[in-house]
Structure formats: structure tokens, C-alpha cells
């Protein structure tokens, strides 16, 4: 009985607010570069709980005093997304919001991304980032 009520409630919510989506699923649409709005910026990764984490193979240097972050080890494909984000912001097309949420982006070459003119809030977010690792399994008794 309870399960039936729960299913009816979910069906009602789904029809009232549109289809239910998994929260980590990227949004797709032709207005986005390559048809996808990324969940997190391409120089970061996401944990299974959908939060931003440092991408494996990258390193970051944070200069909080000057509102700057340098990300080393950024993939070429990501740099394509960064160039497209900058171009879109200049000509008024839909962007990912990286410039507003992170700061000024610059490809310094060699897989190095410089993010400058960051807000204090953005710097704090980067200071809290860490690499995600799988939790150690619990040993059986």
C-alpha cells in the first residue's frame, strides 16, 4: 500500500515538474559547445556525489592574495572548450558560465590553464578542492 502511494506521488511530481533527471547527468542541447553543458568545468572532475574534485593528473597552484589559480596538466580537449567559452562570451552566445563563476581564463600553453581575476568565493572553492579516491572497503568480521 505504502509503495503504491509513493509511486503515485512520484508520478505526480514527475508530470508536474517534467521528467526526473539524475543530478550528475550533463544537460544536452544544440546551444552548447559539442551539444553538452558540462556538470563541472573540464579542468576539474566530479565525484560520485556530483561535487567538483581535482582531476587525476592535474596539479593546481593557488595564489589567493592575487586571486589566481594555475592548473597544470589540462587536456587539449579541455583547452578547446576553454577557447570556445571565451569566444562565446565575446560574441554573446550561450556559455557555461565559467568566466562568471571562476574568473578570467587563459591557455598558457603546455597544458597550463591560468584563472585570474577570481572572486574571494571562487578562490575559497579552489582551496577546498581535493582529489577524489574510492573509500577503503570495510573488512568483513
Account of the 3D structure:
- The protein is of the alpha+beta class and 141 residues long.
- The chain is 31% helix and 22% strand.
- The chain contains four helices and eight strands; from the N terminus they run H-E-E-E-E-E-E-H-H-E-E-H.
- It starts with a helix and ends in a 14-residue tail after the last helix.
- The model is unreliable at 2-17 (pLDDT under 50).
Helix and strand string, N-terminal first?
HEEEEEEHHEEH
Major β-sheet, in short? 4 strands, antiparallel
Shape: globular
Give the overall pLDDT as a whole number. Answer: 85
What Rg do the Cα atoms give?
19 Å
What distance separates the N and C termini? 37 Å
Number of helices: 4
Low-confidence parts: 2-17
Widest beta sheet: strand line-up:
5-6-8-7
Structural class: alpha+beta
Q: How many distinct beta strands?
A: 8
Strand content: 15-25%
- Assign a percent range to the helix content: 25-40%
Identify the notable features of this structure and list them briefly.
single chain; 141 residues; alpha+beta; four-stranded antiparallel β-sheet; two-stranded antiparallel sheet; 4 helices
